[in-house]
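Q: Give me the 3D complex with flavin-adenine dinucleotide.
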Amino acid sequence: MGLPQRVEYLIIGAGVHGLSTAYHLSKYLKAKGQGSGADVLVIEKSSIAAGASGVACGNVRCNYYQEPMTRLMMHCMDVWESDPDTYAYNSVGYLTASFEPMRAGLETIYERHQQLGYPSTLVTGKAEVKKYMQGVFHDWQAEELTAVLHEHRGGHAWSRQAIHGLAIKAEREDARIITGPAVTGFRFNSAGEVTTVETDYGAIEVGHVIVAVGPWIKNLWQMLELPPAVPNPRNPSEQVDLWRFLALQEGEIDVDPLLHITNDGQRPPLVHVDSDVPLYSEDGRLVWDQPWGIYFKRDKHAVQGGAVPIDLGTEAAIDPYGSRSPHYCVDDNFYDLWVASLAHCMKRFEGQRRFASTKPSGGVGAFSADNFPVFDFMQPNVYVIADSNHGFKMIGVGEQVARVLTGETSELLAPFAYGRFAQQKTLPKSNAPFPWM
Ligand SMILES: Cc1cc2nc3c(=O)[nH]c(=O)nc-3n(C[C@H](O)[C@H](O)[C@H](O)COP(=O)(O)OP(=O)(O)OC[C@H]3O[C@@H](n4cnc5c(N)ncnc54)[C@H](O)[C@@H]3O)c2cc1C
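A: Here is the predicted complex, encoded as structure tokens.
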């Protein structure tokens, strides 16, 4: 398919955010009499779900310490639940079991859930936590955990299926998706608006541009001639790079997925554990003596999950997925830690290290200076959706962006405006070992 000479709304990137925006924007343009899906074009340099959205573990949760994240995630949860079949969404719930440094944070989150009407259960105390977990998984054996937050909504989605589901919904609304062209630059007018988007397939004149390129954001940020640094949220007198890269540590054990089942024979909730109990390998070797955090779920063909990511610095990943090789992101160290932690938590995972997958896994995420998204107009007609790697679960962001593009305001997106760095209004940090909690 050739590129059109002009399009009113050009969306760059066919991941969760680009396609959610395309679908909702097409719908709202028509409903508001402002146009139709024919005015919306997604261009994608590779293929649908080729980026972070297609490799995500698919966790969907609402246990955020920061209120704006909780509110936004509740909205996203509504979108997931609006069409679970097309979004391949498993509403199995989400269990977060944590050690003492995180107890107060989980209590705060629980109180907010109650205020906002989000259904969750909080249990505290070592013995009580173990008993609660054993009520779900009879062989739960982790000690020293002092709080568990059980979200009764949330769970996970099959990531590639979910993104293809969004693409189908967008195309049903007459949006176009063209795979192949890579954006290589922008031309601006004197007002700073982008008039033309340059690609390796030719140029397109545009009315509006929506940038939704996931871990490639630093490249596009440069092309948009935006400042590379912002005031450091922890020390505003110095400047820090806005974008840095982390290698997400995820993998699978190739066991029968039915090994992982609840006491009442159901698909299990997603489980997340933070602890500092030292971890040992099956032959008694100490593999980890620092605080650790892990998560896991029953996948279609295995048990899948991840651990705390590794910092790659600010210059990694010019094309984060272009150079992926089987162990680009994870290595034996990851599997030693992750499988030892699974066995620490549940007897069913003892002796499973030998089933560690050799398939490619993990991926790269681009994180902002305060680890929260930037959702904002970065030029008068250019909206940037840069989720700081929070975002497979954020399927509802595109819905809110579509409202903004059709003349509404979004209270849910306002806290993520770029101006927060200069105004020193960045979001508070939790005690979690993960940058995304
Ligand atoms: C291993 C891993 C696991 C994760 N697990 C979870 C999870 O369980 N839950 C969760 O909520 N989040 C998770 N995340 C984070 C989440 O996947 C991302 O935040 C989210 O998918 C980003 O979506 P996106 O649409 O912005 O980007 P992407 O899905 O990366 O899509 C961007 C697209 O833009 C295209 N593109 C890039 N540059 C150009 C260009 N110049 N021209 C044209 N096209 C271009 C790319 O090819 C790509 O297809 C995970 C991330 C990783 C890496």
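A quick observation: The chain has a mean pLDDT of 94.
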